[in-house]
Amino acid sequence: MTFDFCSEPGDVNVPTQIITPEQTHDFSIIFIHGLGQSNLTWKLVVQEAFAPALPSVKWILPQAPSDQPAAYYHGECRPSWFEISELPPTQDPNEDCQQIKNSVSAIEDLILGEVHAGMDPKRIFLVGFSQGAALALIVALSTLYELGGVVSLSGWIPHRARPLLMSTTMPILWCHGLSDDEIPYSYAQEAVAYLRSRLGISTRTLTFKEYEDLEHTIRTDELEDVVSWLSRVLG
């Protein structure tokens, strides 16, 4: 089963946290949190680890809806970009295509808002953790906008979304822990191999970094690699 991500702009709205740049607003980065998380938690990470090193960046942190029962949390309402029954994720028939479509539309709306405010799409980047990384990758590789780049932290690419993905020369950074048992390292390897073999994305375009003893979380050396990569790509 496949599905069409296309939707009218402005039909899905999500609350956001904004971190304004310390200097001139030259770039915008949308940071997408993971399953069951809050954008407020990641706001602190951005303020401490990213913003001081990237003073010309406006950070936009959307919050996933939390009004739908989440199967992974046994029916409790938790923030989720789309339905996941279990971790590691499988090709789950319960995977909610409409939720994925709505979440893609929500991120597209944020991109559109930046474009309407005068930002060149090539100066807009997506960063995501876990489920947020999956969403960031889907949007970045299916949008008609030519974005500046995308960063996946402990992410994967849902199989149902793959037929909609397109080849790109947009810079991609994929970071993954070797000890991750929620989104296993093998998932990252398989997804990166898919992007390279099926979509023809070159090793020059896609940078893959692995981290010894890193579980399903973030770590200082990983964040430093992200800052270094963004600094280089932003120029």
UniProtKB/TrEMBL annotation:
Catalyzed reactions: S-hexadecanoyl-L-cysteinyl-[protein] + H2O = L-cysteinyl-[protein] + hexadecanoate + H(+)
Gene Ontology cellular component annotations, sorted alphabetically: cytoplasm
E.C. numbers: 3.1.2.22
Signal peptide (residue range): none
Record keywords, A-Z: Fatty acid metabolism, Hydrolase, Lipid metabolism, Serine esterase
Pfam families documented for this protein: Abhydrolase_2 (PF02230)
Listed GO biological process terms: fatty acid metabolic process
GO terms, molecular function: carboxylic ester hydrolase activity; palmitoyl-(protein) hydrolase activity
Top-level enzyme category: hydrolase
All residue ranges annotated as the Phospholipase/carboxylesterase/thioesterase domain in the record: 17-232
PANTHER family for this protein: LYSOPHOSPHOLIPASE-LIKE PROTEIN 1, LYSOPHOSPHOLIPASE-RELATED
Family: Belongs to the AB hydrolase superfamily. AB hydrolase 2 family.
Protein's job: Hydrolyzes fatty acids from S-acylated cysteine residues in proteins with a strong preference for palmitoylated G-alpha proteins over other acyl substrates. Mediates the deacylation of G-alpha proteins such as GPA1 in vivo, but has weak or no activity toward palmitoylated Ras proteins. Has weak lysophospholipase activity in vitro; however such activity may not exist in vivo.
Name of this protein: Acyl-protein thioesterase 1
Organism for this UniProt entry: Pterulicium gracile
